[in-house]
Specification:
150 residues, 4-stranded antiparallel β-sheet, 51% helix, alpha+beta
């Protein structure tokens, strides 16, 4: 616990704010999926995304996408219930708050005759770059939905 605190305090101010934002949004997404359902949660996150956050000055689009992915992944590593959908919802909200166009994608990979079960996955795509949810075989997933702002 002390090591985590030291790691957090060693970050610069912008990264600390980003990590805190990721933590709050992961908790909100996890709770909202259980209490509100997907459609209501999505509308709530759309309102959050509508309130503009602050982008780091001098930071490129790709660098910001990378930092958001890092922050969400770092928090998710300490919050075992943060599924790929929870992480994707949080990252999508953070990126849209900063004016970065991205798409939340939900896909499924078919099983193969009982050897491998059907698998679902969620990720965030920002112009071809995966911000959160990158897996080795992402191309095997057939996109079922790209739920946009409601």
């Amino acid at each position: 616990m002390i090591a985590a605190y030291r790691s957090f305090t060693a970050l610069d101010r912008a990264d600390r704010r980003l990590v805190l934002e990721a933590a709050v949004l992961i908790a909100l997404a996890w709770t909202g999926l259980r209490l509100l359902g997907f459609a209501t949660l999505r509308r709530t996150l759309d309102r959050v995304a509508g309130s503009r956050g602050s982008a780091r000055s001098g930071q490129t689009h790709a660098a910001l996408v990378g930092r958001v992915g890092w922050a969400v992944t770092a928090i998710a590593a300490r919050f075992p219930a943060a599924t790929c959908l929870v992480q994707a919802l949080a990252a999508d909200t953070i990126l849209r708050r900063r004016g970065i166009a991205c798409e939340l994608r939900i896909g499924v990979r078919p099983g193969d005759n009982g050897a491998r079960p059907i698998e679902a996955h969620a990720w965030v795509d920002c112009g071809g770059a995966v911000a959160v949810g990158a897996v080795d075989d992402l191309r095997d997933f057939k996109v079922l939905a790209t739920p946009g702002p409601q």
